[in-house]
Each structure stands twice: as C-alpha cells, then as structure tokens.
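Known limitations

Files may contain more than one protein. Parsers should not assume a single record per file. Below, a two-record file is shown to illustrate correct handling: read the sequence, read the token line, then continue until end of file.
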Amino acid sequence: MTTVADIQTLEALLEAIRTRNARVGVIGLGYVGLPLVLLFEQEGFPVIGFDVDASKAAALNRGESYIKHIGVDRIRKAFDKDRVIATTNFDRLAECDAIIICVPTPLGTHREPDLKYIRMTAEAITERLRPGQLIVLESTTYPGTTREELLTRCEAKGLVCGRDYFLAFSPEREDPGNEHFNTKTIPKIVGAIDEPSLRAAQALYGSVIDRVVTVSTTEVAESAKLLENIFRAVNIALVNEMKIVFDRMGIDIWEVIEAAKTKPFGFMPFYPGPGLGGHCIPLDPFYLTWKAAEYGTWARFIELAGEINTSMPRYVIDRTIEAVNGIGKSIVGAKVLVLGLSYKADIDDDRESPSFELIELLQERGAVVSYCDPYVPVARRGRKHDIHLSSVPCTPEELAKYDAVLISTAHSQFGDADLYRSVKLVIDTRNIVPRNAGINVVRA
C-alpha cells in the first residue's frame, strides 16, 4: 500500500528531475557510461561520473578523451563546467539523486556469468544509500539480476523499494561509431521493481532521451536486451555457415546476400566475418543459456550459433594457409599482416576482437605476424597471451613488404584499392577490397 510519505518521496524526486536539479551519478565511464554522462550534462543536469580507474577520471577532468569516437571538444565542453566531474571517490554516491550502473558483465572461464562488478557496485551503493534515490542497472545480464543482486542487498539494509528508494533496469543500447543513432535518439527500454520506481526511471530517461519504452518488470527489460543480441548472434552464425557451404560450392556469398536483400520484405541482411567481437554479441547470449539451465531447459540455437561463430577464426586461417600455398609459399616463415584490431569498423574498441585469435593462430602455425590499425596503435593483450605488437603504417609501401595481407576489420581506409597495388595476396574477410581492381584477392 502506498502511503503519503511514499508519495512525497517520489514527488520530490520527480520534481528534482523536472527542474534539472537532480544530480545524476554514472558508475563506469566506458563506452556506455561516458555517453550518458555527456548526455545528462548536455541536457542541464549536474553529473558525477564514477570509475575505479583513476586515469580515466583524471583524463576527463583535464578535458581529454580516451575513446576515439568521442571527441576531445565534446569532453572539454562538458568537463569545463562546474556541473560535471569524474571521480574515484564512491562516497560521493550519497550526493546523487539517481545512480546509473554501467559496469562490465564478462563471462567466466566456463562461459558462466561473472557478476563481480555488479555485486561490488551494489555493495558500494547500499553502503551509502539514502532515502529518495533512484538506482538503475544498465549492464547486460540474465533475467532476475536486478531483483536478485540489487533488491535483496537493499532489503538486507532494511530499505523498502518504492518507499525509501527506487529500483529499475534499462538496458544499454550503445552502438559506438554509428552515425545514424546516438544515446539520445535510440529508444530506451525501462522496467522497474514497482510502479513508483517505473515512474521515477521513466521521468529520468524521458528528460534526456527522445523515446522511452516502459515494460512490466525488470525481468522483461533484461530479457529484451538478451533477445536483441541473441538475434544478431544467431543470424550472424547462419550467414557464417552459409559462407562455408557456398565457398565449397564455388558460390560467392557476398553476391548471394546482395541478391537476397533486394526482397523488400521477410529478409534482413547479415554479413559473414572472421568471428565475433565486442562486449555484447560474443558474450551476452550465454547469460541466457546459463540461466535457462537453472530451469531445466537448454537454448540450443544459442549454443549452436556460439559453436559456429567461435569456429570462424580457424576457418579463416585454414583459408589463409591454402591461399599462401597457392602463391608458392609455406605459412611457416611467411610474413602476414593482419589489417584491423578493432572488432568493428572505424572505432578503437578491440574488446573480444577476433583479430587477436587470428594473430595467435597464425603465430602458432609459424607465420611472422604484424598488424595495422590506425585506431589501435599498441596491442599487448591477446585472447591467450600478450602479443606485444604495435601497429605498422597504413601505406602501400608497408603492405608491399608482406607475403599476405589478411583483412579482419572493415575500416573505411582499408577499402582503398591503391593500398594493395603491390600486395602479392589479400585475404578479405569483409568484402571491402574493390572488385575488378586487378588485385589478387581471396574472399574468405
């Protein structure tokens, strides 16, 4: 039953949001959290950004950007003002009227969910939680996490959701480098523990984002995010499998896709590649398979898609070895340049990039490997070990030094045919090299 005190607490928060006096705290200043900080500041809210990495906080406060597609000018414009600051001091959570959690949700060694960052953040918040605060989890996770990890911790402190504080889940939908959509224009799904929490979260996001879509529970919101990513993972696996099948038949998968996508209904084009990268698509689907097993059911499509997608780097390397043999060289001792370390085109995010595995597999087979990526000048970590490489220049003269060039990422500048004018062999996994340009290309 909602009491007068409950209504007064909620109304006070809603009024603070309406008047832009609500202080917003964002925990995690990466590819999801930092755009939120900038958006809330842009819309007139006082903001505190929290991160355990002191170098990130210091860089932002100096007006510097560590994410390439977020320009320095935008950072300086925001952080030159008194109403926004970045800090590692989590005691300042008590100053915030709304707290948005944007921390990583990786997988463990056996592809089980690793919620340590959510749990650490939940503990930090509950230690400082005061009446009237709104907490929103944005990190992608399995259905039930908001209720199990956040609600239970707050209840253990004797706090009542919907009366003392408000709790919701709103999945992040960032797409770094997308020129058509941004944090403000991408519709925002919101699900909450109770009606007062839903009103508070809807008001918060509705004040800065063009469209807010409310759902009945946090579990629905958590599940919607997983379905979005599973949809992509399964369809990418399908087209990757078709690539292998059509390759055996001597059929060009890229031409097949171009033909199929002329159908104005019932088809959506997906494109093959050397494997999955990024924080979302390779990892998030397995949050659901793990949770489904608790209920005695198995998500077989997800598991099969995972098998296909994780096998693609080895398929690409097999095709590369065949192509190198075709020019009279052995892969042992061959000089191979991998183009692109980012997981997607024209950004500097290399999380889970298949390029790391391509490099390591080539090294295991005896190749002398280098890489070129103007967005990632230094690469230390790999999927298995530190690779300790630095990017070589992206010039025709540099590329001509190698026996083979393997394109892993479709950076715009890699589509310049002049770049390959003196290259003996190009293995193109992204169909980016122009056709009929007189270049020896294997589209793997």
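...continuing to the second record:
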Amino acid sequence: MPAPRIRTLLVDDSAFMRKVISDIINIDTTLELVGIARGGQQGFDMTMELKPDVIVTDMVMPDFDGLQLVNKVMDKMPIPIILLSSLEKTDSRIFDALQFGAFEFIDKPTNLDQDRIREYRLVDLIKEASRTDVSLLKARQLAKKNVHHHTFTASLNYEIITIGASTGGPGAVELIVNNLPSNLQIPVVIAQHMPHRFLESFAVRLNTQSPLPIRVPSKGEIVRGGNIYIAPGEGNLRIEQNIASGLPMFTFTDRKYQEFNYPSIDCLFESVAELYGKNSIGVILTGMGKDGMMGLSKIKEKGGYTIAQDEDSSVVYGMPKAAYDIGAVRQVVSLKQIPGFIISCL
C-alpha cells in the first residue's frame, strides 16, 4: 500500500506565484496540494479546516502576513511552516518567524526553467518538514540565555570552536551563542546555510542578543579570541596563517564542494583541521544533507574534538547522522547541553 501523500497548503497573495509554486508542488507525486489561500487570514482559516501536514506561505502579504500566520498557527494548531521570502537583507522579520516556530525559509523562485525547478529545494523542504517534531519548533520560543561568567584555567585545551548548521540551524545557533559565557577567550566561527543576503542581518541579530561581539568577517581579517564570526554566503570561507604575522586570518577559496557551497561547512572545517589540528572543536548541528561530514572527519583525524547534535533535538537529523555514520563524531549531545559541554571541554 503506497504511503499517504504529504498534504500541503499554499498561501500567497500573488496569482503568478501561486501558479509557480503550485506547479512545483504538483510535479512530485508524493505531495498533495490540498488548498490554495490568497492571504494570511484565509490561510489560517483553511489550516483550521483542512489540517494540512505542511504549510508553504509567502512572508510578505497585506493585512495578515507570514509572521502573523506563523504566530497564530503555532499557537492554535502547530504545523510545520515553510516561508517564501523576498525580504531585503535588513528586514529581521524572517528570524522572528523562525523563533516563533517556522520550520525554514527559502527565497522565492525566479526565472526557473525545468532544470532549475528540479534544483529548487522546496519539495525537499516540504518532505523534511512533514517528518519534523513540531514540539522542537515551538521550543525555540522558550530558549533561555546564560548571564554568568565562567572561570577558565590559565591554559585552555582548545584554541577555536567551529560550528556548522543548515535547516533548523538559526534557532540552534542562536541558543548556543546565547549560552556561551561572556568571558569566552577563544574564537567561534559558524557556517550556517542561508541565502547570502540574510547572513549579515543574522549576525546583527545575534550581536544584539549576545555579550560576545558577533559579525561577518572580511577577507584578510585576523581571527581574534572572544569573537563570534558568521561565515558570509558569497564564498567558501577558510582560515589560514598570515605569512607576515603568523596569526590566523580569514580567506576565501574558489574551490567548489560536492555537498554545499557559499558557505561550505566542509571548507571551513577542513581549513580548521589543517591549521589548528588537535586544538580545535568541531560541532555539526541540525540540517539536510551531508555538508560538514568530511570536514568534521578531518578535525577528528587531526585529534580535535568533534560533537554532533543528537537526533531528538535536531529539526532535521541529516548532517549530524551523516557525520556519525562515518565515525567522524566523538560525542553526541542534545542541543540544550551543547554550550555547557563545549565549555567543559575547554
């Protein structure tokens, strides 16, 4: 007996976009488009009536937008919600929607021919969203912050913390950085899969919440302890030794990676393994695919400490599982325990 199709509701005020997204959903026979709403209020009403498995909604709509829809649905009938975004990079509402429980966001499709439609991630996101534990999405609203200092020893065991995340990652990254001590002495470098125009605003948002300075680094910038860096999405970030000063600095490579690019987690992890070796900590968080698997393996091979988020706390247990399955993970840790566990390693 075939598995039941994934019942999907589409909400968008644009007739053109409703047609484009409907066509994309209808291509896959495992999905069923059970309803199409022209606005947020109608989308909410149809949600209550149809009880879909997944909602795909425009973020920007008049009167009742995607953020309001996320708030109301997650309060009344929690269902995974995928946001279609055309927001500018300075608009932080997308991160508010994620915090309130949205599953993920994706740029609206533009100029899609048949080949590019197959590469557009929406169908894969719908499938992953239908399998997620909605309680994990709602739990983002309850995440707490650490307001305490930590007493470090004079000599630390590690010199850098590097983190990779994809789907479900913004909330996970936010929880971790908000629970690191304000007197952390080593750098943290994070590669988060996200449309490049949002990474700067993601860093700005985190910077307003954390006592540690958080920003997107520039090419040639020296890596400083006590700073958190968010990899930009316009290239694959590496850390290499500055020949003149001998200090670690940020660089970029033209090399393309099999699993993901801009930013590639594998690229960042591999460079950290090469430069820091046994003095590095690598952490792989929730996400679709296998990016970070090979890079984390290299950190472990060099003697660094490797950590993977556990399945129960992962919105999508893809990247952590891939790394675990090849033996690249030394310790599996639940999301809420990761900040404290990292500090205990230092």
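Parsers that stop after the first record will miss the second one. For reference, the second record is described as follows. The two ends are 53 Å apart (CA to CA).
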